[in-house]
Design goal:
This protein is 64% helix and 3% strand. It has 17 helices and four strands. Helix 14 packs antiparallel against helix 15. The longest helix is centred in the middle third of the chain and has 47 residues.
């Protein structure tokens, strides 16, 4: 089992508690998980300008809201497996592996690395975004460095300039904060999460009170008059938006670290999803009514992904207060980076414990945090900064595996209902939710089929991002083969029929009769 084995003994009247140094510790409450998921509004902001420029304000509002409704449903569905496996770190990809391993073992490592890629890329995306803000607002003349553009940047040329340098330094700083324990990282989340509320209020409410918001700026699918083209464009953006909206599932990743794993994970998943649903509707509507969609699109494509927000702030509150709001906005992006490090590193730790990748990642340091996973996150994202140097390029390259992981987990919930009928379920979804899970799995698979090869239709990428996503899945499979054949010296089988037996002691609060006197398995 993966929970922390706390054992109390009495010696000369003094109780002592021993904690396995190789395990995560139970130090979180449900609201800690909610705070980690406050990163999601930052995820929205990173792609908001591109979506409005491509879809129009109304198109972006509708699709962001639909995507977030899907995310709310995802979280409700994921509550069942999260409460079934409260001792399993890693979250969504671990549940996908448990469900699918009897049918195709390679889906496990594919889901694991796809999920990790979606989360770890947040570090590079927001590190670079903060760097762009600093340069554009305070050091516009600091144009030193190299900046390969176009197709040449994929032929070995390296990006290195002020935004990249700032991004790399922030990635190292976030790594350092997380390496000294989960509590310091959570407290960083509390501080930056509280400060996030200020720019959210400014962007959601100030457009109306200052008179900067105009209904005439609202437009609907300005790209083409052709209905089929717009339907295809909507499918591509639903594929991309999943990266931002579905991130509220991160609360499940910390299941073994909650004091009451089942109760806390349920509350964290629900509260995070509902809060983000409100923001994902109101924020695009507020910001999208200040400037024309075409203006927002040009600023996003030619300057940076958040330049339109700077222009809107100057228009609403003046240049003096703009600096203050930008500082708070950058701190909220730091929250996103902090959450990504916490979630991504635990995903690597969890999949290593499940035997899906190299043993080296099955490690926690003396502060009981997966420091090796954090180090992999840090190095990977600095490399992304140097090779890509574009927020939306990194965004698209990391999305393929992440959305595919949700397809596997959503369908996996249905599979577990058939193959694990007798497994204890503290929360058993009503039958209607199973139909919802099936619909969402099919819908997300359709978004992949249409969206992954068609990213160029948005005007922000090429086929290279798709190849990067496919390449990552190939690496995941190779590492899995190495783990099974070399490190475990076992057989490589396409199907794993190993029988799992629940530790009934984990469910004593829900099934006291069944667990009375039960031994730990």
């Amino acid at each position: 089992m993966d929970t922390v084995p706390n054992s109390s003994t009495t010696t000369t009247g003094v109780a002592t508690v021993s904690v396995d140094a190789h395990q995560l510790i139970k130090s979180l409450r449900w609201y800690d998980g909610f705070v980690v998921c406050l990163a999601n509004p930052g995820f929205l902001i990173s792609a908001l300008g591109g979506a409005i420029g491509s879809l129009g304000t109304l198109g972006a509002v509708v699709l962001w809201t639909i995507s977030m409704v899907f995310a709310v449903a995802n979280n409700q569905i994921y509550t069942e497996p999260a409460m079934m496996f409260p001792d399993h770190p890693g979250g969504v990809p671990v549940y996908a592996n448990i469900a699918w391993r009897k049918y195709f073992t390679f889906f496990g490592p594919m889901a694991a690395f796809g999920y990790w890629a979606g989360w770890t890329s947040v570090l590079a995306i927001f590190g670079l975004t903060i760097g762009d803000i600093v340069q554009g607002q305070w050091f516009p003349k600091a144009t030193w460095g190299t900046s390969a553009t176009g197709a040449h940047k994929y032929l070995g040329f390296i990006h290195f300039n002020l935004p990249v340098l700032i991004g790399a330094l922030l990635i190292v700083a976030v790594w350092a904060i997380n390496a000294v324990g989960v509590k310091p990282a959570v407290w960083v989340g509390y501080v930056t999460g509280a400060l996030l509320m200020i720019p959210l209020v400014v962007f959601i409410l100030f457009p109306y009170f200052t008179g900067a918001w105009h209904a005439s700026n609202l437009s609907w699918f300005p790209t083409s008059a052709n209905t089929w083209t717009n339907i295809r464009l909507a499918a591509v953006w639903m594929y991309l938006m999943g990266w931002s909206a579905y991130g509220v599932e991160a609360a499940a990743t910390f299941a073994p670290e909650y004091h009451d794993s089942q109760r806390d994970v349920r509350l964290a998943l629900r509260s995070a999803a509902l809060f983000s649903l409100m923001v994902f509707f109101l924020l695009p509507l507020g910001t999208g009514g200040v400037l024309k969609a075409g203006v927002i699109g040009k600023l996003t494509a030619n300057v940076s992904v958040v330049q339109f927000l700077i222009v809107e702030l100057d228009k609403m509150i003046g240049t003096g207060f703009t600096d203050v709001v930008l500082v708070l906005l950058m701190l909220s992006f730091l929250l996103s980076m902090n959450s990504a490090t916490m979630d991504g590193s635990r995903a690597l730790y969890g999949i290593a414990r499940q035997g899906l990748t190299v043993k080296w990642l099955d490690h926690v340091n003396r502060h009981h945090v997966p420091s090796r996973g954090m180090t992999v996150d840090m190095v990977t994202n600095i490399v992304l900064l140097l090779l890509f140097g574009s927020v939306l390029d990194i965004y698209a390259a990391s999305n393929l595996g992440y959305i595919f992981t949700h397809v596997l987990c959503l369908s996996g919930v249905l599979i577990m209902r058939r193959t694990m009928k007798d497994w204890p379920r503290p929360l058993r979804l009503a039958r209607g939710w199973l139909y919802v899970a099936g619909f969402l799995a099919v819908a997300n698979f359709a978004f992949i089929v249409v969206g992954a090869p068609s990213f160029s239709i948005t005007g922000y990428g090429t086929y290279v991002e798709l190849l990067a996503g496919i390449g990552l899945e190939i690496v995941a499979i190779l590492l899995f083969v190495y783990r099974r054949k070399v490190q475990d010296r076992g057989r490589l089988e396409l199907r794993d029929h190993t029988v799992m037996v629940p530790d009934m002691a984990l469910f004593r609060d829900y099934f006291p009769e069944a667990t009375a006197g039960a031994a730990t398995t």
